[in-house]
Specification:
Shape: globular
Distance between the termini: 48 Å
Strand content: 25-35%
Number of strands: 18
Structural class: alpha/beta
Strand order of the largest sheet: 3-2-1-4-7-9-8-10-11
Helix content: 25-40%
Amino acid sequence: MDLDAFRWLLTDDGQALLARAEEHAGDDPLAAQTRLREQATPEQAAAALTQATLRRRAEPKFGELAARLYFTPDGLEQATRPAVARHRAARLQAFAATTLVDLGCGIGGDLIASAEAGVVCAGVDLDPVRVAVAEANLAALGLPGAVMVADAVDVDTSPFSVAFADPARRSARGRSFSVDDWTPPWSFVEQLLRRDSCVKVAPGIPHDLVPAGAEAEWVSDHGEVKEAALWSGSLATTARRATVIGRGGLATLTDEDPVADEVRAVGDFLYEPDGAVIRAGLVTAVAAGVGGGLVDPHIAYVTSDRAFRSPFARGYRVVEELPYREKQLKAALRERGVGRLTIKKRGVDVVPEDLRKRLSLSGDAEATLVMTRVAGSGTALLVQPL
């Protein structure tokens, strides 16, 4: 995105063009560009149409707020979901953090949440366009905060009560899961975690990479694991935490909660832990919470003889065990008139889409099948969601 064209977009004329672009955002791109170029330069027309398109694309993540914000394509993809950012800001608020420096602020998603929570914020980013977008977003919401172009590794964080970083996890080859490709690098993250700080990392971060004394928190939003965050200094309260955000609000589980790690026979109910719980290694805490145990020491399914509603796991009533072998399984499902089948699997070499095709089911009934290992053996369970 052209920086000058974006800055022009914030003027009165630019806002008028953006409003017109939003009217044509669903049109053929070439036709929309042609209409907009009747009253602006090609660069300005492109900037307006890009923003209008990105605002539509941002609606699933930002909801009604998307219509008031500005984005870049990569900034939208990397931006923290508002619910997750607000949770992080609430933690800062709970620890009485007064000032925050955001090292790699992107389009300002975390700046917005922290400023809304009353924290005095400053953001830096290497990209002048992202800095301009972050400034515009704070202004659009009437929030205070300063943003400037700078390299995070050169910033003196000592004047701030908390430092926050969201390292870019991309290389020249695209998205990278190696800390060696992070910008700023992992060595900078390790140094930052020696003070009161929070670093957003990929959910797949290995547990053994978390520095001693830091808290690793995995966060899911409506069933999707969105990120992990490393908290250090006085902000760290435990070693591992799973935070689940859903329709009922927010719930959290830690490695200090009671656990039940026994392996037992499948009971009347099966529980599928939330992804954040699994990433945090807290499946045994879910087992304790439902008064049950594990179906296998290496499988993230929990079983119990009692029905529970838990924010940390989805529950199923076990209807019956079916044959695990494909030929016999196909016959059993046809016998029960199953034509629409949801297949969930864990710990077994099964591709649900391929298996469903091979089963060639045609009945009127709908069912859910769990294929997993129970005490080391392949098992097929017909279940009903609670």
